[in-house]
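Quick one before lunch.
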Amino acid sequence: MKVKVFTIFPEIFPGFLGYSLTGRALNEGKWSIETVNIRDYATDKHGSVDDTPCGGGAGMIMRADILGKAIKANYQDGRIIYMSPRGRPLTQSKAHELSKEENLTIICGRFEGIDERIIEEYGIEEISIGDYILTGGEQAALIMMDAIIRLLPGVLGNEASLSDESFENILLEHPQYTRPIDWEGRKVPEILMSGHHQNIAKWRLEQAEKITKERRPDLYQKYLDLKKV
Ligand code: SAH
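Model of the S-adenosyl-L-homocysteine complex:
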């Protein structure tokens, strides 16, 4: 997968994606990243990319002409995504969908965001990483990329570890334990030591259902609805 990121802080990339599984996959060429510094397309000597909002209000907006020039000069095929709190939420199924793309272009906003006309002109898809406001799209882009890259073929050592995870089958994950079996008087649930795979699977499902029901009633309802069909 080829990722192209439009940003005013190219030095943020690849950031933490240079470590661990995503870092190894980057070195192995399973994905690549190119950054475009939007400031290189500024026209004044200060390199300004933003201006005050039309109609008034607080903060600054990234200008359509400058960002537009940057996009035009560096256009690559495939989907363009703008990281934005107004976007559709990033979910595990969205990450799966995006992991199938050859090219991904990501625009990182700063200040109060970007001029709407850019979104219209390039048919840009907005994606949010959650219902809170960050200072910049770079953080959101790195998180979204992390979720996508670990799904690329060969990035996770053990593909089976994927299918059990939270969200992969709607439910949140069951509790996990490892050695020592007795840690300061707290013991690993006996059933996990029984070697009885069916009972273990049943226990894990019950735990996952209980945790999901308590913490994420929205997901739990979705799970029940899906079980009915
Ligand atoms: N005024 C905007 C928020 C701007 S925050 C609004 O109310 O919608 C500045 C930049 O940070 C945004 O342009 C976006 O790229 C990024 N950003 C902030 N919160 C985000 C989130 N939850 N998901 C994705 N990107 C986000």
